[in-house]
Amino acid sequence: MRRVQIDHARAAHAQKRGGHRRQVSLSGEFVIHRRPDEQLEHATLLERIADHSPRWSRMVELRWGRGLSVQETARELGLSTATVEKDSTKLRVWLTRELQRTR
Questions:
Q1: What is the spatial distance between Cα 20 and Cα 22, in angstroms, rounded to a whole number?
Q2: Residue 60, by phi and psi: left (phi above 0), alpha (psi -120 to 50) or beta?
């Protein structure tokens, strides 16, 4: 999943692919998309999360990638809901530190 996101961000960012252009829907309304550099930053963060904790990485994929609830994520990972909530809190703290370091 992370590799697909990274490849997509790189391809979208490539000049020959028009990465600098804003995407427009066929109906003429502007479609809001993340900038390619944001996509690459998010994909890089996902890799760093996976390096730090594979369980956190899987949790991110389930919660934010697939939109599962805390209960569904806990069931999928074979954990208690309390553990998923604690890990979510730890992950937010870790992400905040990592983002402050890179900016």
A1: 7
A2: alpha
- Whole-model pTM: value is 0.60
Q: Read off the pLDDT of residues 45-56 as tens digits, 9 standing for 90 and up.
A: 888 899 999 999
Per the structure block, which two tokens stand in for 26?
A: 């066929």
pLDDT of 25-45, one tens digit each? 444 343 445 566 666 777 788
Choosing among 3.40.50, 3.90.550, 1.10.10, 2.40.50, the CATH entry for 2-102 is 1.10.10
Return d(Cα 9, Cα 89) in angstroms, integer: 28
